[in-house]
Amino acid sequence: MTSSARAPFSLTVQPFSLSPPDVKRSTAYLPSTNVCPDSERREAFRLALSRRGFKTSIFCTAVAKDTDSDFAALCDWLQAIPKPCGLFASDDMRAMRVLGACRAVGISVPEQIQVVGADNEEWICGHTSPTLTSVEPDFEGCGHRAVETLLAMMDGREYAEETSFGVLRVEQRMSTTDIHGSASRAVRARAWLRDNCCGPVNFAQVATIVGCSMRMLQLSYKTVFGRTMQQDIVEMRIERAKRLLSGGDTPICKIPELCGSDAPNHFLQLFKKRTGMTMLQWRRNAL
Question: Distance between CA 151 and CA 230 in Å, rounded?
Fold first, then answer.
């Protein structure tokens, strides 16, 4: 460890911008209630939209956060902002509160307000009504940078006093989807695939479930998510394997089958190709 006095090392999420909203839309931001301030994220969001000619409404109240009074103030603010509106919340918990407030005062999501959260917490985003679109930061990249910095500190080498990490992806769900368009079918298809990815998957059946032809679903799915349903299934199964490996109890030989693969050796090879590690190496790193 270097003996010279250094400022504490910190990691911050690199400010990100969403696609510019339609010119007829207003924009809004709901700040965090956490101890960790989100002023950089809020300001980056405001500036990015300001450069495109938009004024962003930012929720501000003097009452204690996450109280009944705060909820009432939030309802009043949501009713007052011009619509249609694109709203970005500092995190998924705050976005979930927006959805609850919209229901309470009869504001339609996504028709009147489209809501986006941050962190992509599946236990939140997949269980709200409607399901919540969210920005997922590159937490894995953050971990790698943290390790590199820690090693540099231990070796007495120079290191950045502060670094940032960016966005991994935006997970689109129903809170930003045109419920009358083909994008809605793609989002509903993806939700079905996520719930059933570890069993037999028949894409023609999925098309029937969401109410369109197979060809139309393939086109809209690729347009909305940038990849095919088959590619998504593979990624979902790989993520399922990671979770099973992190748990530590499931025998590796059982994991391909539990992830819906009927070709275990191929799945093991695919896992290594996607992650750069064998399943055993992944488990050892995770534990």
Answer: 40
Separation in Å, CA 2 to CA 9, 10, 151, 153, 267: 13, 17, 11, 7, 45
Query: Residue 94 carries which DSSP code?
Result: H
Task: Tell me the per-residue pLDDT of 114-143, one tens digit each, with 9 for 90 and over.
Answer: 999 999 998 899 889 888 999 998 888 888
| 20 vs 18: CA distance, rounded Å | 6
**Rounded to 5 degrees, what angle do the CA atoms 203, 207, 213 make?**
115
Please say whether the beta carbons of 6 and 34 come within 8 A: no
Identify whether the C-beta of residue 162 lies closer than 8 Å to the C-beta of residue 10.
Answer: yes
279 in any annotated domain: yes
242 and 215 in a single domain? The answer is: no
Q: Which residues pair with 89 in a beta bridge?
A: 30
This prediction's pTM: 0.62
